[in-house]
Design goal:
It contains seven helices and five strands; from the N terminus they run H-H-H-H-E-E-H-E-H-E-E-H. The protein is of the alpha+beta class.
Length: 234
């Protein structure tokens, strides 16, 4: 009796579903999401006649599943991008809290590294120029011509993943760095050419083709604040 009970119950439930659908013939039209879970009948025969309708329905179901998956990824990516944008804006605003030029450098190399989840940030300037290299506690001195060597003549930002980082830029942290973002610091009347360098142990943190707008914004924000402090020293 125990084996028959579920079968009788299933038949009764099936009967209710059939009667319901008879009374509501447009039910599936009003609830198209059910097509993603229902299995359509296969009308192929032994005479090598293929039911293309069934194949198309199955393909549509597969495409719908892929679309839902991609939609979820897009939502997650949008949320991550928004979070990153907020962090970058907060980092730029934190520059206004600097009490002096050394504090400004500390905010960039230490506070930004923590807040932006970057392993190493370096402020680098070329030496041996007519314009005196800024005197900062947290600064890396580069040989003349290094900026053009790493960034070319025109590039403002260079992104490299799975990189063999430069000891000139990252010093003792060179072996740690697997991805880097190099942002040009243009020369002015108070500073020689330089690089604001971000380094990460995550090889996928930076890569060619990645958007650079936020990095450019950070570079310009820092440079403008630096120039203001350097002019106060004149």
């Amino acid at each position: 009796m125990s084996d028959r009970k579920p079968k009788i119950t299933d038949e009764l439930e099936a009967s209710k579903v059939i009667n319901f659908l008879i009374r509501h013939p447009d039910f599936l039209i009003k609830n198209p999401e059910l097509f993603n879970v229902l299995t359509p009948p296969n009308r192929s025969t032994d005479n090598e006649i293929v039911d293309f309708q069934n194949i198309m329905i199955e393909k549509i179901k597969s495409n719908l599943s892929d679309l839902q998956f991609n939609q979820g990824n897009l939502i997650n990516t949008s949320r991550n991008n928004l979070t990153t944008q907020v962090q970058v804006h907060e980092a730029a605003l934190s520059l206004l809290d600097a009490d002096n030029i050394d504090h400004l450098a500390h905010i960039v190399t230490q506070d930004w590294a923590d807040n932006l989840h970057i392993d190493v940030i370096r402020i680098c300037f070329e030496d041996q120029h007519q314009i005196i290299t800024p005197i900062l506690k947290d600064i890396t001195i580069l040989p003349d011509g290094c900026v053009a060597e790493y960034l070319g003549k025109d590039d403002i930002v260079q992104l490299r993943g799975d990189v063999d980082a430069s000891a000139d830029i990252f010093g003792p942290a060179q072996s740690l760095i697997k991805a880097e973002a190099l942002i040009r610091i243009p020369s002015t009347t108070v500073n020689p050419p330089g690089i604001l360098a971000f380094g990460s142990r995550d090889a996928d943190m930076f890569y060619p083709g990645q958007g650079t707008e936020l990095l450019r914004f950070l570079g310009k924000s820092f440079h403008k604040c630096l120039v203001l402090w350097l002019k106060k020293r004149l």
